[in-house]
Amino acid sequence: MQLNNILLSVSGKRTDDDILRLAGRIARRSKAKVYVVYVIEVKRSLPLDADIESETRRGEETLDHAERVAQEQDYEIETELLQARGVGPAIVDEAVERGTDLIVVGLSYERPFGEFSLGETVPYILKNAPCRVMVYREPMSEGIK
Amino acid sequence: MYIIVIGGGKIGYYLSRTLLSEGHEVLVIEKDQAKCQHISDELGSICIRGDGCEATTLAEAGMGRANMLIAVTPEDEDNLVSCQMAKQKFNVPMTIARLNNPKNRPIFKKLGIDVAVSSIDLILEHIEEEVPTHPLTHLLSLKDGEQEIVEVKVPPTSPVVGKRLKDIPLPRDSFLSLIIGKEKGAQLPTPNTIIEPDDRLIAVTRPELEGELMAKISGS
Amino acid sequence: MKLVIMGCGRVGAQLAKLMDEEGHNVTILDVDSYSFRRLPSDFGGRELLGDGADEDTLRRAGIEEADAFVAVTQGDNRNVMAAQIAKHIFNVPKVVCRIYDPLREELYETLGLDAISPTKVFAQLLKERLES
User: Fold this and answer.
1) Is the ipTM of this complex over 0.90?
2) How does DSSP classify residue B164?
3) Do the chains C and B touch each other, judged by at least 3 C-beta pairs below 8 angstroms?
4) pLDDT tens readout for residues B38-92
């Protein structure tokens, strides 16, 4: 399988490091380009282009951290900070625009109401992304810790 | 503009689609999960599920920065409350409500809703327009009903036939803006324009003066 | 007093019964005739089928001469709209309505409606009971 263009969605959560390592392995083998995006979800009470300092800082830190992990893994990434109303649609739009052929997302093992939940982002991407999608779910033990 | 639409039925959907294509930022609030899903699938993530009369939902929707609220649910009481919440609690400058029952127009107006639109009234206006024997036709309501544009046909027996415009006393606040003659076509009126039989006069007037205007022009 | 009640649910029917027993002139409205079964068999007031958020129905119910109007249907917005029609169009001297949603109740209180939120009242009651 030849992959040229991989889109990685990071969120500042535990799974980021693992998917960055995973993507590194795929990228080195296929010499694919890896775009790493962090999406700031902007509440409706603010305009889409609002400057949300704390969120921007968190996003930049997350992307800086991604750069470091990629360096350790010896591959190059391109990072981007996006603002959108929802993470799922933003990732799908980005994938379409860039002609991505694989999206990689992480899913932490969470049980918000005592039940495991896929959340909103992953199902949206699975349903709407035109390209391949890889969902990495962390081990249960990580989430329950 | 940031426009919030309450109700994601057929009207809400097509309205939002048009507003989006005109470049506005649009958010739809809809109670029903399936309708929400349909809008999100077709128009992108512009729909939230919730009760458009509940303050928390409206706050989450960013009502505080909305320029306009349009309530188009099939229930007048829901449209009324959404508009009142928007106006009174969030100071939204412009509120528009769909009127399902045209009889509710006075109460909506009295309670501060900026514009109330009734599809029934609109259809009735068109019917009026199509009835040729009707001597006065409403063409358009201006400034929320304070002024209107009407069309009056000049009967051949009218005393104004053959007179110059400057010699015809019109009611106050009433102006002729266009004259459409059978042969001469559309003309901008001047003080010296002579009225001919069967001319159609397009006039701006106030609703309470239309009887007086009719009387002057048709001579009845 | 001449009283018009909109909504013949448990609360509406109970209120109608109490006011009727005290000799007041009561008219009670509901959109469903089946609701009138809640009234006692010796109810002396008038039962009227119709939507109280409709001006014509209110007129038929005698709203123009009413001293008081109470809106207690299941729908907050319906109650709010009917109460505002009674107050602002028919100038009924005393208008009271039920609004379950506490936030909506607050807003309409500030807009001059006499509104009661059973949600707030009942939660408060429970709290007091727990604390006693």
Assistant:
1) no
2) B
3) yes
4) 998 889 889 999 999 888 899 999 999 999 999 999 999 999 999 999 999 999 9
Q: Which of B65, B69, B90 should one mutate to test binding to chain A, selecting the residue with the greatest count of A CBs within 10 A?
A: B65
Quote the CA–CA distance of B73 and B16 in Å, as a whole number: 13
**Taking CB atoms and an 8 Å limit, are B101 and C89 in contact across chains?**
no
Q: Do A89 and B48 lie within an 8 Å CB cutoff?
A: no
Residues of A in contact with B45 (CB under 8 A): 85-86, 88-89
Question: How close is the nearest chain B Cα to the Cα of C77, in Å?
Answer: 5
Helix then strand count (H, E) for chain C reads: 5, 6
Q: How confident is the model at residue B217 (pLDDT cuts 50, 70, 90)?
A: confident
**What domain range includes position C62?**
2-131
Residue A99 φ/ψ region, left for φ over 0, alpha for ψ in the -120 to 50 degree band, beta for the rest: left
Cross-chain CB nearest to C77 (options B55, B77, B104) = B77
Give the C-alpha separation, C6 to C4, whole Å. Answer: 7
Residue given tokens 């958020």 in the structure block: C53
Domains and CATH numbers, chain B: 2-120 (3.40.50.720), 128-218 (3.30.70.1450)
Cβ contact, residue pair A44, B60, below 8 Å? yes
Amino acid (1-letter code) at residue C114: D
> Would you call A49 an interface residue with chain B, using a CB distance cutoff of 8 Å?
no
Q: Which residue of A has its CA nearest to B28?
A: A44
d(CA A134, CA A104): 5
Domain count, chain C: 1
Residue in the structure block whose two tokens are 């009126």: B189
At which residue do the structure tokens 């900070």 appear? A81
Is B64 close to A45, i.e. CB distance below 8 A?
yes
* B-chain residue closest to A86, CA distance: B45
**How confident is the prediction along chain A (145 residues), in pLDDT tens digits per residue?**
788 999 999 999 989 999 999 999 998 888 889 999 999 999 999 999 899 999 999 999 999 999 999 999 989 999 999 999 999 999 999 999 999 999 999 999 888 788 888 988 999 999 999 999 999 999 988 766 5
In CATH, A5-144 is 1.20.1070.10: no
Q: Each residue of B156-209: pLDDT tens digit?
A: 888 888 889 888 888 888 888 899 988 888 989 888 888 888 888 999 998 888
CATH at residue C119: 3.40.50.720
A48 to B65: CB separation less than 8 angstroms, yes or no: no
pTM of the predicted structure, to 2 decimals? 0.74
